[in-house]
Amino acid sequence: MNLKLPASEPIHIINPLWDVSGGSEWEAIQLFNVLSRERKTTLWTEYTPDPLLAERYPISTVEPWKLKFPKTGTFIIVGVYFRVSKWVWWARPRRIIIVVNTDGHADWVRKKRFLSRFRWIPIETVHVGCMTPQSRDDDLTRRDISPIDIERFNVGNPDRHLSGTRFTVGRLSRDVPLKHHPDDPRFYRRLASQGATIRIMGGCVLSADLADMPGMELLAAGSEDAVSFLHGIDCFYYRTAPEWLETFGRVVLEAMACGLPVVCENRGGYREYIRHGVNGFLFENDDEALEIILRLKADPALRKHIGEAARKTVEQIYSTSHLTGLIEYYTR
């Protein structure tokens, strides 16, 4: 059994931190924001961090040849999709925690096998969302959600849905093909033909199909602050390529925290938190998505009602008790 972590013993959060639009990066950063208020906490990467993240946060780069790397304390490895090199074998951590936030079972197994050199330390696993591979060792497994500072994403103008005639559908993500469904360009054209304006941050990858479309704005990932972007739209739409499964879908919860009605494909970990027609919408195909969004376009009061319910949902999810439990787990 672990003893409570001494206040002098550091916590090290390890992640590539290479993409300002990456959900894993923001999970690592929010863990840092929370835990650094309780214990000495550092952010580490073996890669070149995103310049915007490096400008805003105290990120240290691993340099084994200079003996610059985490050495003692608690190591929190956020994600299983990146390589951790052999510098870690020279360290003497008291705890090692792997945060699994994708469905890459093989990556998780490889990461655990690589870290098994620490035979005196049981490797703990935190599974984010309801669709990550589950460990058979329940004593070393924690099921959790990706931490979000919901006050940062608080509702902007609560009456924005009731004013003006312009209706804007938006989404944001990393600017890679897997974050977009192959049918989305055709769907956006159908939506625009019905009078909707569409803004996609992280949508430059769609330029070949949509750059000429009236009412469409494609923005580079991270070109606007995520909160400002979300406060400027009326409805949040989200689905990904069939090859990409969102085990949690952090960005969907962020949109809900902004008081937005979300319209999402009925696939992914975010389904656990969306009650169709109550605090958001889930769809199976393009026709369903179009019908839902056009209903929201025609009914500002419905947009406001669903958005308010969405905000209440995230307030319940990210309660004080959840934050307390998160802190107690990582600092014990």
What secondary-structure arrangement, pairings included, does this model have?
Elements: E1 11-14, H1 23-35, E2 41-45, H2 51-56, E3 59-61, E4 74-78, E5 95-100, H3 105-115, E6 124-128, E7 141-144, E8 168-172, H4 184-193, E9 197-201, H5 207-210, E10 216-219, H6 226-231, E11 235-238, H7 250-257, E12 262-265, E13 281-283, H8 286-298, H9 300-317, H10 320-331
Parallel strand pairs: 1-2, 1-4, 2-3, 4-5, 5-6, 6-7, 8-9, 8-11, 9-10, 11-12, 12-13
Q: What does this protein structure show overall?
A:
This protein is α/β, with parallel strands linked by helices and 332 residues long. The protein is built from 10 helices and 13 strands. It has a 7-stranded parallel beta sheet, sandwiched between helices. β5, α3 and β6 form a beta-alpha-beta unit. The chain is elongated and about 60 Å long. The model has no long low-confidence stretch (mean pLDDT 91).
Short description:
This protein has 332 residues and is of the alpha/beta class. The protein has helices at residues 23-35, 51-56, 105-115, 184-193, 207-210, 226-231, 250-257, 286-298, 300-317, 320-331; strands spanning 11-14, 41-45, 59-61, 74-78, 95-100, 124-128, 141-144, 168-172, 197-201, 216-219, 235-238, 262-265, 281-283.
The outline comes out as elongated
Distance between the termini: 10 Å
What's the number of extended β-strand segments? 13
Strand content: 15-25%
| Count of DSSP-assigned helices | 10
Strands of the widest sheet, in order across it, are: 3-2-1-4-5-6-7
